[in-house]
Q: What sequence folds into this?
């Protein structure tokens, strides 16, 4: 199965109540299918960028459904949150 393709990355407001100060919306496509994922950076984020948001999402582009939200920790670790904010 082909990978998801990153079509666009743009800054957006972080999820309310999340301990994140920077967030990017990444728009994806795979053929006719479309998806969106939000990559958020824990506060205080010093390495946040659209390029790093794409890198954080890269390992998930082979999945059938990419995660809707990722959080990049202060140490650079990436996780898919399972709890509601």
A:
């Amino acid at each position: 199965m082909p990978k998801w393709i990153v079509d666009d990355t743009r800054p957006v407001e972080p999820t309310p109540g999340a301990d994140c100060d920077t967030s990017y919306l990444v728009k994806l496509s795979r053929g006719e299918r479309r998806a969106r994922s939000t990559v958020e950076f824990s506060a205080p984020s010093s390495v946040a960028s659209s390029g790093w948001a794409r890198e954080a999402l890269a390992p998930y582009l082979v999945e059938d459904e990419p995660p809707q939200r990722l959080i990049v920790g202060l140490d650079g670790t990436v996780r898919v949150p399972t709890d509601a904010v």
In short: Helices lie at 50-57. The longest helix spans residues 50-57.
